[in-house]
Amino acid sequence: MSTKNASVEARDVSAAPTKRSFGSRAKTHYKRWWWVHLIVIIIVLLVVLLPVVYVAYPKIAQTDVNESTLKITRMDISDPTPDSIHLAQTQVLGSHSTFHPQIFAFSASVSLLGAAAPFASVQVPAVQSKNGAAIDISQTLSLTDTTAFGDYAKAVMLNEEVGLNIYGKPVLQEGALPKTTITYNKTVTMKGLNKLKGFNVTEFSILGTQPDGTNMNGTVLIPNPSVMTIAMGNLTLDLSVAGQPMGQSYLKNLVLKPGNNSVPMTSKVNDAAIFKLLESDTKKYGSGIIPFDITGNSSVYNGQNLPYFTAALAANKLTVELNVGAALGLHSST
Ligand SMILES: *[C@@H]1O[C@H](CO)[C@@H](O)[C@H](O)[C@H]1NC(C)=O
Ligand SMILES: *[C@@H]1O[C@H](CO)[C@@H](O)[C@H](O)[C@H]1NC(C)=O
Ligand SMILES: *[C@@H]1O[C@H](CO)[C@@H](O)[C@H](O)[C@H]1NC(C)=O
Ligand SMILES: *[C@@H]1O[C@H](CO)[C@@H](O)[C@H](O)[C@H]1NC(C)=O
Ligand SMILES: *[C@@H]1O[C@H](CO)[C@@H](O)[C@H](O)[C@H]1NC(C)=O
Ligand SMILES: *[C@@H]1O[C@H](CO)[C@@H](O)[C@H](O)[C@H]1NC(C)=O
Ligand SMILES: *[C@@H]1O[C@H](CO)[C@@H](O)[C@H](O)[C@H]1NC(C)=O
């Protein structure tokens, strides 16, 4: 009897749900199977979120970085040695992204665009990526490839514009999202020295031999259209006329600053040879004006020759016309 009752009871229980409301059925269902739903929800969230966080977000971050720009507004090269320079630089980020991730400090290799090898590594400090963010760098760079740096110096000397490539793999983080590593490969186009176009000797005097052995002094104008300040040390320049050596000029402690540089010059000129030139070729130099070719001979800083500046100077032939006749009093200049 008791077993029958039990079975009836059991039947009642099992039959009951079909009669119960949908709400209460669902309640029972969820009470029992909540963990399955939770797992399904988690899986769905992960399936949706993981690609967003781990695929879309790094891609968006990389695209933003690709689309950002970099402008170097100041570049100050000082304390050069044959295998190092001190670099103080300000660069400004340009970005139209709505994301403003933190970019952590990273090591970037710097090279002339298209060069086979970088010339140095720069430690770029952390920066919040947003339009107009300025990054200041001040560090001594050891030149990992002095030939590559020589090529860069030469390109700066000879060109109106120079491409500087900055390459690194910084870690980036947007808000609470995970960190992601991106590739930073940016080429900055900078103004170069453009062959020192406009170089001139604005005044000069031929003197008797001075205690230091020089016999001419004057002022040279060196235009620098770039944003670069370059400490070049003590420069020696070779003077020649029509391929014939005529002496040397010296620029002491030259620090080339942006804009026009008016710097004192001294020279050791072969005045006998110049006299001879003026007298022997009156057709060519009858007016007393002689075109001097000027090329770099050496750049010495703290007693050390700097091959990269020396080569850059040597690669650039300058010509100035000097009224030597007037300076020697051979022709009346007034
Ligand atoms: C970013 O630019 C590099 C080339 O510099 C390219 O290979 C890469 O596909 C670009 N990535 C995105 C996400 O646009
Ligand atoms: C950086 O990008 C330039 C072209 O945009 C490419 O020529 C160069 O190989 C890239 N550098 C590296 C290290 O991938
Ligand atoms: C160089 O300077 C002298 C003296 O100031 C000036 O007479 C001459 O025109 C200048 N030459 C050039 C090419 O600017
Ligand atoms: C050149 O030297 C003379 C004599 O020492 C001096 O009077 C003159 O100011 C100097 N000129 C320049 C441009 O330095
Ligand atoms: C530099 O000097 C040249 C010639 O004297 C002049 O034409 C030019 O405007 C000057 N540039 C600056 C930035 O002062
Ligand atoms: C540099 O000057 C020295 C003399 O001071 C000379 O012997 C040498 O040939 C010059 N070098 C070049 C490349 O002109
Ligand atoms: C340039 O030469 C002078 C000596 O003539 C020296 O006192 C000075 O330190 C040198 N400058 C540099 C930057 O080496």
Describe the structure.
The chain has 334 residues and is of the alpha+beta class. It has 2 domains: 66-192, Immunoglobulin-like (Sandwich); 195-327, Immunoglobulin-like. Helix content is 31%, strand content 43%. It is built from 7 helices and 19 strands. It has helices at residues 2-19, 22-67, 146-158, 271-280, 282-285, 307-314, 324-327; strands at residues 69-81, 84-94, 102-103, 106-112, 120-124, 127-128, 134-142, 161-168, 171-173, 180-181, 184-191, 200-206, 216-224, 228-241, 244-256, 259-269, 289-301, 304-305, 318-323. The strands form 3 sheets. Strands 1, 2, 7, 12, 13, 14, 15, 16, 17, 18 and 19 form an 11-stranded mixed sheet that branches. Strands 6-3-9-10 form a 4-stranded antiparallel sheet, with helices on one face. A 4-stranded antiparallel sheet has the order 5-4-8-11. Strand 9 (171-173) and strand 10 form a beta hairpin. Mean pLDDT is 90; it is low at 6-17. One 2-acetamido-2-deoxy-beta-D-glucopyranose binds next to loops.
